[in-house]
Design a protein that fits this description.
five-stranded parallel β-sheet, single chain, Histidine_kinase_KdpD, elongated, Rossmann fold, 2 domains, transferase
């Protein structure tokens, strides 16, 4: 049972996008919510439907969900298949949840980018006049420990091969899982990551080494297509 927050007149929304800084923003929001003893929400917005997320994106989402459960976040919100601008989506969520403070990451932006594309933060400020916005500096150089590039994903299958699982690209009654295989760039063998939905409906991914599934079923979100 969730603990009833002391200050329901305040409510914090953390907006995250894909990258290692998302976890940092969530933890920053959690600290602020603890100080204020108020509800915390986490939001991510994407123009693609969730089932079209690549292995990297879905990996980040799964990690954020786990972190939100760990920190007792009020709600983790995914606005997928969003055709409006991210600012419009954020504004709607903020209105629906009576948000009074928003935390976003501020990436370095040079003057030319600001002139040609406009400042995301400025647009956000104009859209939400009565909400406090906290900017957390984001370092573009932060990367995952295993920053590996992968080719575009292709449809594949996992089937039982004695006491192990083998990658296949042929439909068969022996296949146990259907998913997407992301091959590492620069290898002649089928080395990479296989993403699939398990029997409980949860998105999983596992490393593939020369057609054989190896390692733990859940891996860090480090898949980057090129």
């Amino acid at each position: 049972m969730r603990k009833i927050k002391g200050r329901m007149d305040e409510s914090i929304l953390v907006c995250v996008y894909y990258g290692p800084n998302g976890e940092r923003l969530i933890r920053r929001g959690h600290k602020l919510a603890q100080i204020m003893d108020c509800p915390l929400y986490v939001l991510t917005v994407d123009a693609l439907p969730y089932d079209e997320f690549d292995a990297e994106k879905s990996g980040y989402v799964e990690r954020w969900k786990e972190l939100c459960d760990e920190l007792d976040v009020e709600e983790f919100i995914i606005r997928d298949n969003e055709k409006r601008s991210s600012v419009k989506a954020i504004a709607e969520v903020a209105h629906n949840h009576n948000i009074t403070q928003i935390i976003v990451g501020q990436s370095p932006q040079n003057r030319w980018e600001e002139i040609t594309k406009g400042s995301f933060v400025n647009v956000l400020l104009r859209e939400m006049t009565f909400i406090d916005i906290h900017l957390v500096s984001v370092d573009r150089t932060i990367k995952s420990e295993e920053d590996i590039l992968f080719e575009k994903g292709v449809r594949g299958f996992l089937k039982k091969d004695e006491d192990r699982y083998r990658l296949s690209f042929t439909r068969s009654n022996q296949n146990l899982y259907e998913g997407i295989f992301y091959k590492e760039i620069g290898t002649d063998f089928n080395n990479g990551v296989f993403k699939f939905i398990n029997n409980t409906g949860k998105t999983c991914q596992i490393h593939i080494t020369e057609d054989i599934a190896t390692g733990k079923m859940k891996e860090p979100p480090n898949v980057k297509e090129k």
